[in-house]
Amino acid sequence: MRRNNRKSGGFTLTEILILIVIAAFFSAVFLRPNYVRSGHSSVNACINNLRIIDGAKDQWAMEHQKQNSDTPTTSDLQPYLVNGRDFKSNVCPDDPKHSFATSYSPNNVGTKPVCRIMPTNHILP
User: What does the alpha-carbon distance between residue 73 and residue 67 come to, in Å, rounded to a whole number?
Assistant: First the structure.
């Protein structure tokens, strides 16, 4: 008759290591941020820039008593974007020229801003 030397109710070191590896694998697959999984980080960055531009237009309109039909210039929006510095961080990531003027069309106050590089993909909801 064979005797089993293993104590009942406990896990061996190998079993614990296997469980840790499985848990790490599933957490790496399922807990990644959505933009990493989908590969749309440039779309998200552009849409975020459009939101910032839209907020800058609203703030400009309130401070200068403008109507929905008034259109701000780039210099009008500059103080409200990136604390008044240059527009380098407010460009579409897919714009090869890396310029605010070639990336976005702010439009009038009542209309949402538009991405000039990918207007069908980069849309402000």
Answer: 14
